[in-house]
Amino acid sequence: MEGISHITFIVKDLEKTAAFLKHIFDAQEVYSSDDKRFSIAEEKFFLIAGQWFAVMEGEPLKERTYNHVAFKIKEEEFTLYEERVKALGVDCRPPRSRVEGEGRSLYFYDFDNHLFELHTGTLTERLKRYKK
Asked: Does 64 score more than 90 pLDDT?
């Protein structure tokens, strides 16, 4: 196995989601199916920090859950990303309690009830802290 190939979310409005991904994540749009259908619905592909991220048009999630995708950011960029998220007026979750050394997180929903996290820590740091 080589790793994760791609992440796909179903969204109601491809253009609105494209703007969301570009604004917050600096996503680079690399494909738009427009009126063609190679898959089950119209779709767009993006690169976010080198990761293939796909969105397909369809019915959004009916409920919000804690299932989420977390992207790693640098600690010194936390405020920058927090401002980007808040500028879009999306719903942010209060941060969960953390132990020191675990990193900081910003949780927020897109327009289709998908939860995203921007996290400053690493798995190595978290495991080291949990051993204490």
From this structure: yes
What CATH topology corresponds to 7-131? 2,3-Dihydroxybiphenyl 1,2-Dioxygenase; domain 1 (3.10.180)
Cα–Cα distance for residue pair 107/117, rounded to 1 Å = 4
Tell me how far the alpha carbon of residue 38 is from its chain's centroid.
Answer: 24
> pTM here?
0.89
Q: Which residues are catalytic?
A: 43
Among 76, 84, 89, which Cα is nearest to 26's?
A: 84
- Contact criterion met (CB below 8 Å) for 101 and 85: no
